[in-house]
Amino acid sequence: MNRKVRPDELNQLYDDGLQGWIWNEEVKETWSEFCAEEPDLYAVNASIEGLHEKRPRVLLYLAREKYDPGAFTKEAQQGPDCTSHGDRTAKDISRCVEINNGDSEVYYKRSATEPCYGARGSSGDGMDPTRAAKFSKEVGFLFREPYSDSSNGVSLDLTKYNFNIGDNWGRTGTPENIKAICRKHNVGQTLVPKSVEQALDCMAAGKAGHSGQRWGTPSRQNKDGINRLGPKRWNHDMAHGGYDLTEEFFKEQVAFVHNSWGPDWLEPNPIWLEHEDVYGPWIPGTIVVPLDEFEDFFVNTGSIHYYSDVKGFPISEIPYTRSGVL
After folding, report:
1. CA 132, CA 128: separation in Å to the nearest integer?
2. 256, 242 in Cβ contact below 8 A?
3. Rounded to whole angstroms, how far apart are CA atoms 122 and 142?
4. If you write DSSP's letter for every residue of 1-56 in order, what string do you get?
5. Is 208 within 8 Å of 307 (Cβ atoms)?
6. Contact 166, 125 (CB under 8 A)
7. Integer Cα distance of 185 and 143 in angstroms
8. pLDDT tens-digit profile of 94-139?
9. CB 156 within 8 Å of CB 3
């Protein structure tokens, strides 16, 4: 895609087959190799096995909303870079949860999508989520701020989201001098759930994730507030920010999935609005997916990653805050 698109165009483009999530034979092989390198989820995280049974309602998105209010709708996609948005949202939710739970870091700024999308490995549209996960773990990420280093030839302003930056890097990859800065901040652990129970356990332990899938839903829910599989399937990556297994308000077990198309494509959820004392203020664009569809399309597709130990800024290393010099 050689131009930015407006948020109101995205839904139609994905309905028409825009390739944001890439899943082909080469990518499947990469996924298999990645999984072979990763230890079994419970082998290295034995304490989280079955945790979702003890925590039937987990709303990780509330931590991100606490530290970066409105973040879920402030950077609507401008092109087929959904994987970098899903990756970024998963990192930022996990980072915010870690800080909220006492990690010795401070929330600094929203992380940027452009370096990740620039590493997609081609000049074409879309990205493989495994490539995004490997970049976030092995290289790292940057924040929404300007970067300048004349000794390293760096002059890059990431203050505002700009699809064209990552799009233009695609053919040759994210520049080495930019990657050198990314390496100061990375994902410490990537987790690959092999079942819906493992995905729920990851979220129960405060670890957000993202996945690519061929799933789509209409822009309006039924009165039950649940977004179900519609006639159009999107090649799309989205972040996972929680679940509710109680069936107290949503009368089915559900997962909360965050789309990156901006605030206007999806009508407000009637059940959520009725129970904002539980779920927090309505986050526009959040999809309430029935758990059986979450299992079939988001987990079992085999293009899913969760993030832990996200390295941001230790409090002692923050050079300044939004309000001035420390």
Report:
1. 7
2. yes
3. 21
4. --S---HHHHHHHHHTT-BSB--SHHHHHHHHHHHHHSPPHHHH-GGGTTHHHH-S
5. yes
6. no
7. 9
8. 999 999 999 889 999 999 999 999 999 999 999 999 999 999 999 9
9. no
